[in-house]
Amino acid sequence: MKLSFVTKQMNALNDEELLKCSELYSHNYGKYSGLVNNNKAGKQIRMGVGMYRSLYFSNSNIYISLCYKEDKLLGHAIFLLKNIEGKGKCSWVLQLVVDCKYRGLKIGSRLLFSAWGFSDYYAWGLATANAITLKTLETATWRQISVADIAGNLPVLEQLMEDIPFIDKKKVHLTSKCSQVFSNFYPELESSNKADNLKIYTTKLGKIEPGYEWLAFTFASQPMSFTNQRFEMFMEFSDQQLKDAYSRMNMPAHAWTKGTENEIDFILAIVGLKPDDRILDMGCGQGRHCLALSKKGFLNVTGIDFSESNVSKARSSALANNCTATFVAADARKLNLGYKYDCILCLYDVIGSFRKHEDNSRIIRSIKRNLKKGGYAVISVMNMELTESIAVHKCSISQNTQALLKLPPSETMESTGNIFNPDYYLVNTDDGLVYRKEQFTSGNEMFAEYLVADKRYTGLEIQELLQGEGFTIIESRYVQAGHWDNPLPPTDSNAKEILLVVRNN
C-alpha cells in the first residue's frame, strides 16, 4: 500500500483538509465513558471544523502531520513545537487519530515520529490515556518516562501548557507514583492498556482519574537507553525511508552538482561515444548528467532512479529543455531493461548508499549484466581514506553506544549535501560504515530525522570489488566533484570521490 505523508502548519489547512480531519476524528477517535454525563456514554466523540479552528489556528507553533492513501486521509497527528528559552525545542503531541480500518500499519508511529524523532530537542511528550502511545514515546526518544524527571521539568511543561487551550496547568497531579493533568476529557479507556506489557505505565503514572490524562514526557537531560533490538529496529526504519531521504535532497542547490558539464566533458574525452550509442545513468538523481548528454546530441540516453520524486523532476526538466533523455523509476540492484548499453554511469554514492554489502554488490553486478561486452562504465564512490583521515567521531558502536546516540544531527542532505563535515558523522569500527543523523523539515513533506549509514571505499577496496566481478580498470583517481580532470592525493580535503572508468570483459 502506497502511503504519503505531509507536515504543515495547522493554520495552513484549507477547508477541504479541515473537513477530512473532522470526519476522520469523528468516526475513529473513540467513545465517551459517561463518567460525567450518562447521556453521552458510548457515543462517538466528535470534533467539528469550527473546533479545530478555535483550538489550533491562532498559534503558528502548532503543526499537523497527515497520512494519505491517494486522497483519503488515514491519520493525523497535531503537535505543538515551541522553543523554550535556555532549554531548546520541545514537542507536545496534542492529538493523534488513525482510521480504524488501517491500524496495525504503523501509521500512528510514523506520525508520532514526525513530532518526536528529533534528537536535538529538549522535551518530547503529550497528555494521553493510551499506553501504546507512551511506549512509542520511549522508543522514539531512547529514554524512559520518569515521574521524577517530569516533576523536575514542570516549569518547562507549564510554559508549553500556556499554548494548549484544553489543559489546565493549575490541575497537574504529581506525586512519586502519579503524573496526570486535567483535560476535562472523558473517553473510554483503551482496552489495550490492560495488556501485560503496558500495565507498567499505570504503575509509573497512576490509575487515570476521571477528567485526567497521563502527563508523559521524556527529556534530553535523561540518560539514553540502548538495546540492540531497538537499534536494529531503528536502522530498519531508516532503511525503509532511504528513498524518501534521497528524494528530499535539494540537489540543484548543492555545490557538488554545479560541475556537471565538466564531468560530461571528462567522460567523453576518456570514453569514445557515438551519438547513437545507448547510455544508461544508474541512480541518476534528478537527471543532470542525462540532460547534459542529451543537449550534446546523444540520442539514446536513459536515467533510472529508485526515487519516483527524482524521476518526476528529471522528466519535467527534460520536457522544459526539449531533451530526448528518458527516465524510469527502477531499483539499480535488480535492473533489467531488456537490452545492453554501450556505456553506463553510476555516479556519486549510488554504490555505497546501502549499509549492507550485498546490496551494493548487486548494483555492481547489475552494471555488468546491463553493459555490452567491451562497453565502459564510469563509476564514482565516496572516499573512505579522506573520511577516516578527518574523522572526529570514530569508535565501536557496540562498545560505546552513547557516541552514536549523542552524535549531533544536521540538515546536510537537505541543505548542502556536504556529507564530509566531520562534526556530523561517525565511523563505526565494528562494520566500517559511516553513520549520520539527517533532519528534513522544509517544504510540506513530513518532518523527519533518519539515521543514515553508508558504505565508503578505499581505492584498493573498490578496485578489487570491480575486478572480482570481471571488470578491467582503465582509470582510477581521487577527485573533486566537477574537476575530474585533476587527480588528487587520497586524503586531500577536496578528494571526496574515487572515480573509476572500467571495461566489461
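The record above closes out task 2.4. Task 2.5 opens with a second protein, given below.
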Amino acid sequence: MMTLRQLAAEPPTLPTRAAWYLTDLAEARGKQELFTRQSPQKLKALREHALIESAISSNRIEGVEVDKSRIGTLIFGKPALRDRDEEEVRGYRDALKLIHESGANLPISEATIKRLHKLCRGEIWDAGKYKEKDVDIIQTYDDGRSRVRFKTVPAKKTPKAIAEMVRLWQDGVRDKWVPPVILAAALNLDFLCIHPFRDGNGRVSRLLFLLAAYHCGIEAGRYISLERIIEENKERYYEVLEQSSQGWHEGKHDPWPTTGFLLFILTQACKEFEQRVGKLKAPHGEKTALIEAAIARQPGDFSFSDLQNECLGVGVDLIRQVLKRQKKAARLTCLGRGPAAKWRKASK
C-alpha cells in the first residue's frame, strides 16, 4: 500500500516514457471496440490460445511445468489430474475464466484476492488464506548461497495492509489521482511487497493485474496472454521488482521501474492484438456483414469515412459495393456526390 499512499499524498510527475505508454494505450483502447466486432471465430481462436499461454506461462515463471501433450486436455477438458503441477495449471485456468467472464464487474476486493488464490492454488490446506508465518523473498544462487532479497509485511500485519491497499485502490479510482493504469501498476507492486500468502503470490499478482486492466477498460488480455509477455521478459521483470521494492517499507521507493515495465506489457499486448486480428482472414461474406452492421448502427446521416472508421481492415472497394447494393435496393439514399457525400437510411 506504500505506492498507493505515495499517489494519494502527492500526484506524481509522470516520466516521459510512462506518458508515451499512456498515449499508446489510449489509442489502443479507442480501437478496441472496433477490433472486437470482428469474426467470432477469429476471436474465439485468440481467446483459446491466450488461455493456454497464460495458464502455462504464469505457472512456468514459478517453476511449475506440465507435460506438453497434456496441455490442451488440461485447459479444455476434464481429465483426472496426475499431480500437483497439473492441479495448479488447471486452477489458474479457472481463475482466468472467472476474470474473463466477469471483467470489470468482478470487484478488486479482499474477497476476490482470496478467491483468486484459492482457485490457482487448488486443493491445498492454505488456499485462500493469508500467511500465518512471516515469509521473506529469498534469492538462491547456483553455488548454494542465498540472501534475503526483500522482507515482506509481517504475517500479523498482512490483513490490515491488504485492507488498506484495496481501500486506496478504490479511493484512487474514484478520485482520479492518476490515470487508472498507473493505479493498476501501483496495486500490483504493493501486492507483491505485502506478499500476503505463503505461496502463489506471483500468480495472484498477475491475475490481479489482468483484472485491474479490465477495470481500466483494457481487454487485450482476453486475447493476448499478458503472462506470456511477462515470461518473455522475465529477467527484466525480476530486476524492476527489486529496484522498486527498495525502500518500500519507508515509502521512499521508486515505483517507476515496475510501473514502466507493466505499462510496456499492456502496450505490447494491445499491439499484438491489433496485428493478429489484422492478419487473420475472415470467412467469406463476413466483411460484408460487418459493413451492413455498421450501417445499421448509424444514428442518422453518415459518410463513407464513418464506415471506414468502424470497419477496420475492410477494403474501400467492398464498402462501395455494399453501399451501391443498398442504394439499388432502396435501403439507402445518397445525398451528394464525391467521398464526402452523406448517406441516409430509408424510413421504415
